[in-house]
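Q: I'm writing up a methods section and want to include an example of the input and output format. Could you take the sequence below and give the corresponding predicted structure tokens, formatted cleanly so I can copy it straight into the document?
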Amino acid sequence: MSTKDFVEKDYYKVLGVPKDATEAEIKKAYRKLAREFHPDANKGDLKAEERFKEVSEANDVLGDPKRRKEYDEARALFGNGGFRPGPGAGGNGSFNFDLSDLFGGAQGGTQPGAGAGGFGGGLGDVFGGIFNRGGTGTRTQPRRGQDIESEVTLSFTEAVHGATVPLRMSSQAPCKACSGTGDKNGTPRVCPTCVGTGQVSRGTGGGFSLTDPCVDCKGRGLIAQDPCEVCKGSGRARSSRTMQVRIPAGVSDGQRIRLRGKGAPGERGGPGGDLYVVVHVDAHPVFGRKDDNLTVTVPVTFTEAALGGEVKVPTLGGPPVTLKLPPGTPNGRTMRARGKGAVRKDGTRGDLLVTVEVVVPRDLGAQARDALEAYRKATADEDPRAELFQAAKGA
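A: Here is the clean output for your methods example:
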């Protein structure tokens, strides 16, 4: 990333968020835009692909609190006219030096303590981290690969117990036909415009210069003598690959998993980007999920609820457990089977929450009907709605 990016690019505008946006707001805006402009969803749309790159670049900066702070400081310092020279600073009222000198160290033999006009070792030690560079910019730097976002759908059981799933991804990678050189014969020449640095300086007025990627070699520092037919001399080509991705146990629906270094490969020895996997979980016909606990509704008979008893309850992928119902168990009561839930991050398990549902039979035999009639006569003096009406009057 060049100094021009930090000074002139408005990453907040790219993501469509205010400058005081929270980390959560930035993450939400990035995910929305990344999904909208992802190359897989916009096949052959170069504008969408370029927009996706801008969004990813903005997220790389604003999504990292440290880099965001450095970006804000750089914008405030240079974007608003910081280091403006005053009258008499030079023959035309301005300093005449390259901004890369300011960050990479003073050039032209200036040594530490060489007087007021010298910058000593340069301000690179102070501001070098802002531009994610270092040194004097005399050679092309390694470039980190792009982040990739993908999606995967798991069954309920796979989400609870964890699963390894194949994931097919498409991203920019070194061209296999030319080994990433961009040249058909593998012998590119040094770019005469930037002399192999991949960067050129331009004046911005007031005596300042900014460093931009070289337009002739597109920042690579090399130009193909005989351009590769596959990558057209860029050294990069669209590559598809299938990875076996391990989804941890206990993942929830909508969760976003970050796999470091599993994104697009870097350039010139740079590290790979990150892979973000958004997980979708299918519903289960029997079990539900509440945080680290599983839920299940178990039907019981009227006699089991009234007199008490033992009922068997299914578990996810394991043998059933037996729960003891106390006499007078009301409909809707929730009981707990410990350690039968989802796997937590520390390896322990949540619980299985069992909700009792009293089932009323639709058809009764003569014997059962006579028994219930006798029960009704025996409990005729009990009115379960008495307290309800009493409370209604008091209100």
